[in-house]
Amino acid sequence: MQMIQVVVDDDTTAKELLQKGQLKRRTTIIPLNKVAYPQMSPTVLEAAQRLSGGKARPAVEFLEYDQCVAPAVHYAFGNVFICQDGGTAKRLAFSREVNMRCVSLEGDDFNPAGTLTGGSRGNRACLLAKLAELQSAKSSLAQHTTELAELEKQLGQMEAAAREHSKYSRELELAQHSLGLAQQRVAGSEAAQLVAAADATETQLTAARDAGAAAAQRKKDLVEHAKALEREIRDFQKDHGARVKAAQDKLKKAKAAAEAARKAMRAAEVAVAGARAEREAAGGETESLKKQIETAQQSIAGAEAEVAKLSEDVNAAKEAATAAGRKLEAMQARLSECDGEIKALETSRDAVSKKVSECDQEIKKLDAKIKSKRDTIAKSKEWIARMEAEHPWIISEKRHFGTGDYKFEGVDITAMRKDFENLRERCEALQGKVQASVVSKLQKNEEDYQALVSKRTVVESDKNKLEQVIEELDHQSRAALEDVWARVNTWFGQIFSTLLPGTSAKLEPPEGATYLDGLEVRVAFGSVWKESLTELSGGQRSLLALSLILALCRFKPAPIYILDEVDAALDLNHTQNIGRMIRENFPESQFIVVSLKEGMFSNANVLFRTKFVEGVSTVTRTVTETGRAVAAGPGGNGGGAKAGGPGRTGRAVLGNANR
């Protein structure tokens, strides 16, 4: 029975509605002043985001409502999550951290209380999916609106900047042109050439003076270096005499000690040997110092040669400076001569300035003409806009202007306007002679023609859009069909090889065709593919058909399946394979299997056996080690089974205990 929920302002209105509303259906009344709703804690929200990876959001976020009815909205949807798929909804609903009602976009409802609502919707569209699409479209619209406003703002700023840039560019071009003309006039004069030559001469003179100063400093540095080397040589000679004298004193002392103390002969001999070694070292050091002296003398000779060379350079630089000075004096004399020429040029400049003023006046006249032309152009644009408004055919035929009947090249517009005025006067004169109904019919026919042209344009545009949509839908359907084929083909081969070890099966299109033309079932034993299914036995064909059906079921699993003696024509090992295959490949579904073979019983969670007891059909229930307890009771000539509870996984087998 359908339940209706009604939101009222307070509890008084709710009581009156219950007493006097003549409610004929079950109705839940929600008073806004009394309704209490639980708040979704931040811990639950954080856990939901972490477990779903961003695929779940509270249902309240998808709704738009007035704040005055916010308590009722939170009461109805406050503890509900909207998930992108059924797997995410199931995981959150039965998670200890979340443990709240979850609804997928496909419409599957998972409740922690143990109820599961879902299944096929037929051709009905999913409201939650449409709501999610609407929310996404609104967000996209707001974002694009913001971007459009920002772009329009930037466009306005750029237009103002472009106008300023154009203005300053024109002014810059005029200034550069004037500067170029002035530079050309000045550069062509003899005075400018003389000034340039004088500047070059002064530069050469400055460089020559700098080179002379640098050479003198270099000479001074080399002389000081030579004096330092001479001081070092004198100091070394003095030190060398002192060392030799010290060695000789030591030798004398050693000889005296040897003569005085024979008992210490060995020690004296060692001292003598040490003295001799020191003398030899002093002799080697003397040789090294002599070599250093020779090297220093060579450096002094090179420095003196370099000083002589630098002196020559200094003399040459002085001569060049003297020549440059004489040349500078000549240039200065020539420069004084050019002053008169400069005065003559200034006179010419005044004449040119006068011509420039005349040119400015001419430019002003041209500006006035340009302004007049612009006014004429603006009036012409207004006239064209008025003509387009009065004659709509101009807009549709404008693209043909310049070709065919609308080729205006070589046409005298003034004459055409005169002809137009004459024709308009003639039309005004004929208005009284022509029937008004004919004119109105002509206008109506023209309007109908324009309407038909507009409709044709709309129809052609809609046709192109429909063709694009059809093409996209065809592409999506082909992609979806190919995906279904690939997945079902994989599961088909896996299930068949499980049911019949050592074999393989696949779905492939016929030779020379595609999967859109149909698929054929191919079976192989080992590595040999069978040409036809007639080569298989009846049991093998049964297993093949069961594998294909279960592969299709696995693509879109249902909550519960009922199989009635699918193993009737199979051996015991095949029956065991079916039971094991159901347990491994369908952990999310419930199976009720009617069977008479022990191989199927070993894989069930719960067994229901029927037998006759004193002429009455009785059902006995047995729970296996992995099963859960469910309700069962006696029946008539048949039995029923249910495995697990709502939202749980289980398998049940109906068996005959008196077989």
Residue-averaged pLDDT, rounded?
76
SS content category: alpha/beta
- The end-to-end span amounts to 44 Å
Oligomer kind: single chain
Contiguous runs where pLDDT drops below 50 for at least 5 residues: 627-659
Sheet having the most strands:
5 strands, mixed
Overall 3D form: flat
| Biggest sheet, spatial arrangement of strands | 3-4-5-6-7
Beta-strand proportion: 5-15%
Task: Produce a short descriptive summary.
The protein is of the alpha/beta class.
Structure commentary:
- The chain is an alpha/beta fold and 659 residues long.
- Helix content is 63%, strand content 11%.
- The chain has 13 helices and 15 strands.
- Helix 4 links the parallel strand 4 and strand 5.
- It is flat and about 145 Å long.
Notable features of this structure?
15 strands; 13 helices; 659 residues; five-stranded mixed beta sheet; disordered C terminus; alpha/beta; single chain
Spell out the blueprint of helices and strands.
Blueprint: E1 4-8, H1 11-20, E2 27-31, H2 42-52, E3 56-58, H3 70-77, E4 80-83, H4 86-93, E5 101-104, E6 109-110, E7 116-117, H5 127-187, H6 190-260, H7 265-390, H8 393-397, H9 413-430, H10 436-499, E8 503-508, E9 520-525, E10 528-529, H11 538-555, E11 560-564, H12 572-585, E12 590-594, H13 598-601, E13 606-613, E14 616-623, E15 650-656
Helix pairs in contact: 6-7, 10-11
